[in-house]
Amino acid sequence: MLSAGVALAGLAPAAHADPIYPAPDPDPFYAQPADVADHNPGDVLAVRPMPPLLMFPETAVTMVKFRSTNSEGGPIAAITTVLTPREHQPGGPLLSYQHIINGLGAQCAVSRVLYTNDPNLQVKEAVALNVALRRGWSVALPDHLGPNFAYGAAKLGGQITLDGVRAVKRVPELGVADSRVAMAGYSGGGMATAWAAALAPTYAPELEFAGAATGGVPMNLEKMVSQLGWQPHPAFGLAMAAAIGLEREYPDRLPISTQMNGAGLAARNAMANGCTNEIMAIGAGHSAREFAAGTSMLDDPTALSVLRENSLELFDGVPNMPIFEWHSASDPLIPVDAIVNTDNRYCAAGVRLDEDVNPSPEHLSAAVLGLPSALDWIDARMRGVPAPTTC
């Protein structure tokens, strides 16, 4: 039996199985406007003040809806939530923090998690973000998976992050039009951050960044899927969620549902609107071999190209800003060699890169160990101190 009560449903291939998309958010603020294509990336579509949050005292909360671009160049609307502390002065620093979103459903969005009472859905970095707020920084928290919650679509996350920065700088009441800007994120949030940094020179060349801090970034999805997918693994749910999310973003190029057997479709349907706990529980101890009706897609160049297009190790662009990169040398969830290869390529291209390899034996504790150093590094960049390098 599958965990979380999902029953095995036979091994026959799915003759026809369309992608499964998340249930729409009932709040009309999240809806895709009919005229979204009439706007340019970063254009502000709507602004909504939100109730204050106990976890961020003396801080105003504002949701900004803006136009962005999906992975295949189409127009989408996305959301970022801006925290403006009492200490903020006009032109004071702006940090775009890409929170970890291991989710496939609307309730997993950061803008939703901020206002939920579910103890399983928390902004775990609230303490660190409060440090930033008390320094007078504004903090933007984008919903970087997009309207279809395309978990795994890393390039999409980078584009949404950049357009979110564009948008909040265009909202006069936020007072960040002339602000120094930095970005940060870990794991899935690190993917969005690292891609934003790499895409910035071509996707948003008008933006200037003081730097970007990226931690625990899965920089090669092809390697990661291979690592987590074909043998039973406690974190297999993350690999399956990435397959579901990428199919949502690339339904014609990666029709993974058509390759699932009945058990696979049952698991897919069970996690289609889930967040971290549901995804991990449903997938724990399972593998793609149990859920696949065949393996032809493993050799399909079109399908593989989707994974490669979202693998930063294989992207030829380099950031035009200093980078702080941290990870565990023995991280069991992500291919560390892909991080090392990417760091080396950035160094060879002249990027001011500060690599911090910490002693944590696994993925999540590495975030905790590295985040204080990342914030100190960002603080120095915000103050205009030249960036160090370990290249």
TrEMBL record:
Keyword Ribonucleoprotein on this protein?
Answer: no
InterPro entries under this entry? AB_hydrolase_fold, Lipase_secreted
Q: Which Pfam families match?
A: LIP
Highest taxon above the source species: Bacteria
What keywords are assigned to this protein?
A: Signal
Q: Which residues form the signal peptide?
A: 1-17
User: Which named protein is this?
Assistant: Lipase
Which lineage do the record's taxonomy fields give for this organism?
Bacteria, Bacillati, Actinomycetota, Actinomycetes, Mycobacteriales
